[in-house]
Amino acid sequence: MKGHTTPAAGCRDVPVLKERGQREVFCGLTGIIWLHRKMQDAFFLVVGSRTCAHLLQSAAGVMIFAEPRFGTAILEEQDLAGMADAHDELDREVERLLSRRPDIRQLFLVGSCPSEVIKLDLARAAERLSSVYAPNVQVVNFSGSGIETTFTQGEDACLAALSRELPETDASNLVVVGALPDVVEDQMRGLLEGLGIPYVSVLPAQRAGEHPAVGPNTRFILTQPFLGETHAALVGRGAQHISAPFPFGEAGTTAWLQAVADAYGVRPDRFDSVTEAPRARARKAIAAAARDLTGRSIFFFPDSQLEIPLARFLTNECGMTPLEIGQPYITKEIVGPDLDLIPEGPVLSEGQDVDLQLDRARKLRPDVTVCGLGLANPLEAEGLTTKWAIELVFTPVHFYEQAGDLAALFARPIRRKNLIRAMHPNRMEAAE
Amino acid sequence: MKLSVWTYEGPPHVGAMRVATGMEGLHYVLHAPQGDTYADLLFTMIERRDHRPPVSYTTFQARDLGADTAHLFKDACKVAVDRFQPEAIIVGASCTAELIQDDPGGLAETMDLGIPVIPLELPSYSRKENFGADETFFQIVRHLCGPLERTEQITCNLIGPTGLGFRHRDDVEELTRLLWEMGIEVNVVAPMGATPTDLTWLGAAHFNVLMYPETGEAACRWMERELGLPFTKTVPIGVGATHDFIAEVQAITGLDATPDESRLRLPWWSRSVDSNYLTGKRVFIFGDGTHVMASARIAHEEMGFEVVGMGCYNRELAREVRALAEEMDVPCFITEDYLVVEQACMDLAPEMILGTQMERHIGKRLGIPCAVISAPVHVQDFPARFSPQMGFEGANVIFDTWVHPLVMGLEEHLLHMFREDFEFHDDNGASHHGGKIDLREVNAAAPDASGGSTMHEEAAVSLPEVQADGSIVWLPAAEKELKKIPFFVRGKAKRNTEAFAAEKGVTEISVETLYEAKAHYAR
C-alpha cells in the first residue's frame, strides 16, 4: 500500500516559507458554530462587538435557525468607559441568559478582540460566575479572538480550557480528542472496541457530566491537527500523547489506529481482522473518486489547519501533486507524522500575505485550489477550480467510511467544471 | 452590554465596504485584526461577486499590540496603493482598531500617497452598517465633489445603490429606463459602479434621485446644500409611489413627458376577480424603514391587505415609520432584537409576514407564510433574472412575490370545503410549494361524540391554541372547532374570538362564543 511507504525524503525538515501580511482567514470564534452543536448542554457567550455577532451569523449562513446556543454580549460605548461596569453588565446578561435557558450546564465565556484589547478579565468573571451557579452550571473561559486565534484554533482554545478543568484520575484510559460528528464518533468507537481498547472516552463529550477524567495513566490521541494547545494542556495534566498521522482516508485511518494498537499491544491478527473489511471498502470508494484526481495538481491556501494531513491523503491515496501547502501555523510535533509521508517537492508555507500567495497560485495555475469563501469565486472567475475549505470542517470526513466522501469533495468541482464546460468563456482551457 | 443572537445590521465598517465594493477604482485600507476578513465572503458568496472586495486589512495580532501597529497600517496603505493603483483610498478602523487609537486618517494623510485620502470616523460601538454606508459615501462625495456647470440636457444622479443591497442592481436599471422615457438621462449612478473620477461629475446633474435613504441621504443633503441639487423624497416602490415619484420629478424638471405604463400589470392583476381572496389578508411588515413604509402603502392601497403591525430595525428611520404606523393605527416595533419581532408575530398572528430573511425564518417556525421585502440579504435575494422592486416592473415583481407564499384563491375555498379530506387538508400547506403530501389515516377520522373529528389532535400547529396565562379558557369542543379552521385564518379566528370574549367578559370560550365572534367580526 502506497500510503504506508514512508518516502525517502518527507517534508518534515524542508524549509518553511514564513509570511506575514494580510490573512484571509476566520478568527477562532468560528469554531463555536460546530462546537455548540456538539456539546448539547453548552452555551457559548462571546463578549465582543457587533462585528463578532455578524461574523458568527455570516459564517453560520443565517441558515441554522433553531435557536442557537450561542450569542454575543455586544460591548457598547458605556462598557468601554469603566471596567467595573463591564463585569456588572456581564453578570446581568448571564443571569438573564441562564434563567431563560435552564437546560444549560456549561457556559463558555468567549473572549474576542475587543475584550482582549480592553483587558476584560473573563477568567476572573468565569471564576466568579462559576461560584454563583455551581453546581448546576460550570462557567469556563477561553479566547476566540482574531488577534490570538485562527479559525479552528478556537476549538483548540475551548478544549484546552476544558482540559484544565477535567477531573483527576489515576485510572488508565484513552481519550480521543477533537469534536467529531456523532456518526463518525460512533464509527471510531466501534473500531476501537473491535481492537479491544478499554475505557475510551472523547473530548468534548456531548454533555457536561460526560467529559473524561485525566491523569498520569491517561493516553490521548488527536483526531484534529489544530489541537496544539489542548495537547500541551493534557500533557501538563500528566497524560501521554499517542502521535500518529491523522485519520483521513484509508491509509491515514489505518496508521492512526495502528498507533493506538501499538500503544496497547494489540495483536496484528486482531488488528487485521478488525480493519480488513472497512479498509477494502474505503479503498474502493476512494478509487472511484480518485479517477478525477490522479495526476492533478493542488494548491492549499491556509485556512482550516487540516491542510497538511489532507495533502498527505490527496498525495498518497489519490495521486495528486501538491504545489504549495499553506497552513496558518505549523506545529511539527503534531503534523510531523503526516509531513513524513508527503514526498519532498511542494512549498510548505506558514502564515499568509494573501496578495503574494495569490500571485503564486496564478502563476502555477493548479488544477484544484483549496481556499476560503472570500477567495473562491474570484479565483473561479479567473478560471481556477476551487474547493472551499470550510466544507472540510462542516462535513464528516474522518475514518474509513468517509474516505470516499472526502476524496469526492475534491473531485466534485472538477467533475462539475467538466460537465458545464460548453459554457466556459475559454473552452480550450476548460477542456484541458 | 446587550445580548444579541442574530443581528439585522453588521458593524459600520461593513457599510463602508458596501460602498467601496459597489464602486470601482476606490480602495479601502481597514485597520483590523485577523478574522475581520470574514466580511469578504458576504460579497463573494451572497452576492456571487467575481472579484475580491477592494479592501486591505492590516491584520494585526496580539504580539503587535505592545509594539507598533501604526507602521503596519502605513505599510498596508503603501502596498495597497502600489498594487491596486486606486484613484482614491478610504481609510478607517474596525471595532478593535478603534480601541487602539492609531488614527488611520491622520497616518495616511502624512504619507503623501499622491491620491485623495478620505478618512472615515465610524463609531463601532454605537452605530451600525447603514450608518457606515451613508457616512462613507457622504465623506467621499464631500472630498471629491464641487460645483460644476449643469449639463445642457436635463440629467440626474441615482444615489444610494451599494454592494450587497436588496435588488439595487435591478432598481438602477428600472429607474434608468423610467427616467429615460421621461426625457431624463442619468448623469452618474453612485456609489454602485462609479469611480472616484465619476463622482467629481455629480455636480453636473440637475437633480438627485435618492433611491435609498439608508445609504444616500447624507450625501444628497450635502449636495443640496453645497451644489444646489434638489433631491427626490419619494422612493418609487409600488404603483402609487411610482406615480408620486414621476410627479415629483416633473415638478423639479418642468418636463411633462410620462413614461410608458403599458407594462405595469399590478393594478389589473389586483383588480381581477382571482385576487378577491387577497382581500383583508392580515400582514405584519418588518425590515428597513424605506422598504417597510413602501410596503405598507402597497399592502394597504394596492393589494387590499390589512396591515396589522409594522416596524424597522434601523433607528435612523424610526420617526417616519412610527408616524406611518400611527396614521394607520397599528402597533409599531423599532427594534434590532429578532426575538421581539418573533413575539410580535406570535401576538398579532398575521396571515402573512412581509419581512427580511430573519422574518422568513420566524414565519417558518410559526407556520406563517413570508415574502422578503428588505435587507439583510441572503444568496436567494440575488436572483439571476431581472427582478427590481422600483418602478412599474418592480410593482409587477412585488405582486408575484407577495402572492407566491400564499395558498391560492380557489385552493383556499376547497380547503374550507373539504377540510376533513384525508389527502387534501391544510396541514399540507400551499399545493404549489412542493413538499411531501401527508396522507392521514382514513380510519383515524371517525367522528367523536361531540360531532367533531378526533383526528390530528397533535397536528403540528405552531400558534398556541389556548392562552397559557389562564385568563381565558377554551373549552375542549371549542378548541376542536378552532382546529377545523384552515391554518391560514386560524390565527385570526383565535385572536378575534379571544378579543370578543374579553370584551364580553366571557372567561370560557365555547363553540357558541366562537361563532358569535365570527358573526361579530363578519366583514
Describe this structure in words.
- The complex is a heterodimer of chains A (432) and B (523).
- With 432 residues, chain A is an alpha/beta fold.
- Chain A has helices at residues 32-38, 50-60, 77-81, 83-100, 113-117, 122-133, 153-165, 182-194, 228-236, 249-263, 268-290, 307-316, 332-341, 354-364, 373-381, 390-394, 403-419, 427-431; strands spanning 16-20, 42-48, 70-74, 106-111, 138-143, 173-177, 200-203, 218-222, 240-241, 297-300, 321-327, 347-352, 368-371, 386-388.
- Chain A is globular, with a radius of gyration of 22 Å.
- Chain A contains 18 helices and 14 strands.
- By secondary structure, chain B is α/β, with parallel strands linked by helices.
- Chain B has 4 domains: 12-129, 3-Layer(aba) Sandwich (Rossmann fold); 155-253, Rossmann fold, CATH 3.40.50.1980; 266-403, 3-Layer(aba) Sandwich (Rossmann fold); 409-521, Proto-chlorophyllide reductase 57 kD subunit B (Helicase, Ruva Protein, domain 3), CATH 1.10.8.550.
- In chain B, 43% of the residues lie in helices and 12% in strands.
- Chain B is built from 21 helices and 15 strands.
- In chain B, helix 8 packs across helix 17.
- The longest helix of chain B has 18 residues, at 487-504.
- Mean pLDDT of chain B is 89; it is low at 442-465.
- Classes of the chains: A alpha/beta (432), B alpha/beta (523).
Annotation keywords:
A: 432 residues, alpha/beta, Rossmann fold, six-stranded parallel sheet, four-stranded parallel sheet, 16% strand, B: 523 residues, five-stranded parallel sheet, 12% strand, globular
TL;DR?
The complex is a heterodimer of chains A (432) and B (523). With 432 residues, chain A is α/β, with parallel strands linked by helices.
CATH superfamily of the largest domain in chain A: Nitrogenase molybdenum iron protein domain
> Could you describe the largest sheet of chain B, including whether it forms a barrel?
5 strands, parallel
The CATH architecture of the largest domain in chain B comes to 3-Layer(aba) Sandwich
Question: Roughly what is the average pLDDT of chain A, rounded to an integer?
Answer: 92
Q: State the shape of chain A.
A: globular
Provide the residue-averaged pLDDT of chain B. Answer: 89
User: By helix and strand content of chain B, what is the structural category?
Assistant: alpha/beta
Head-to-tail CA distance between termini of chain B:
48 Å
Number of strands of chain B: 15
Rounded to an integer in angstroms, the radius of gyration calculated over CA atoms of chain A is: 22 Å
CATH class of the largest domain in chain A reads Alpha Beta
- Computed CA radius of gyration of chain B, to the nearest angstrom: 27 Å
